[in-house]
Amino acid sequence: MASMNAINAEYGFIHLEWNFFAASHGKGAVDGIGGSVKRSVWIVVKFRKNIVNSALEFYDLARSLSKNIFFIFVETEVKEKMVMLDDKWEGLKNIPGIQSKHFFQSENYHSISAARISLSHLKSA
């Protein structure tokens, strides 16, 4: 969520809101496959049968667990994204209780508001 300000600055948005709805999560085929793969990896990690500390380790484990899914690991892309994200996220602060929040709004390029529910019902039409 802290990347909202970076998105505002990069694309010049004046106002940005981000709403999460539990009913919308994981509804597409890709979401289902990704969720299944993550769950398989999580079960193995949870029972301490394997440790995952990197994207490559996740890829290797997921590939070994999911024989009917074709995986591609693009190392250069992972490294490029890590550098870009590290630069954007440097110095960002945590949002306490973020798991219980479903509404985020950028205030400016330096701050955001977070709430448990959307504030759209408070706005005039």
Folded structure, characterized:
The protein is mainly alpha-helical. The protein is built from four helices and three strands, in the order αβαααββ. It has helices at 4-11, 29-46, 55-65, 75-89; strands at residues 17-19, 103-106, 112-115. A three-stranded antiparallel sheet has the order 1-2-3. A hairpin with a 5-residue loop joins strand 2 and strand 3 (112-115). Helix 2 (29-46) crosses helix 3 (55-65). It is globular, with a radius of gyration of 18 Å. The two termini are 26 Å apart.
Task: Tag the structure with descriptive keywords.
125 residues; 4 helices; Retrovirus-related Pol polyprotein from transposon TNT 1-94; globular; mainly alpha
Brief digest:
The protein has four helices and three strands. It is mainly α and 125 residues long. Strands 1-2-3 form a three-stranded antiparallel sheet.
Q: What is the distance, rounded to the nearest whole angstrom, between the alpha carbons of the first and last residues?
A: 26 Å
Q: What is the percentage of strand-forming residues? A: 5-15%
Order of helices and strands: HEHHHEE
**Average pLDDT metric:** 78
Q: Strand sequence of the main sheet, in spatial order? A: 1-2-3
**Helical percentage:** 40-55%
| Biggest beta-sheet profile | 3 strands, antiparallel
Structural class: mainly alpha
